[in-house]
Amino acid sequence: MKLTLLSSSLALFLCQTQAFAPVSPSIRPRTSVLAVTEGETDTYFRAIKCAEGSSSTLEELEKLATDLENVLGSQYEEGIENCEREVRDRMDVAHMLRLRIELQLRMDYLKGENLFASDVQKSHDRDERRRFKELLEANRDKVVDGADLGLW
Which residues are in coiled coils (predicted)? Predict the structure, then answer.
């Protein structure tokens, strides 16, 4: 009788400990895809399109990245392994959006204030003008008198 009571108490204790085991805050399995709202789906879809390269403003990229980073747990997948992968992949999309922000800021700097790019452009323009003048002079020497139509 004592053995049965002890084993029953142990079984009850084990079941209760498993029932109250902490679940990782980043993993919150959902029971259905229907738990995702239409607005959330639209946001996620736009974030993926922007990560793939769709035209967007820096503000939109920032907002989408922040929205993805603030989502807790899994939105679509079930099971710990799939939930963890979904969260990892969602964070990867957010990271891609952040990289696009950085790239755009660097491109703006390159086009506007980058000293090296400015110096190279000036040098290239000088070289192009010099080559054009050399070709012009070379072609002037090839013109037969009276064939230039008075353009020189």
Answer: 51-78
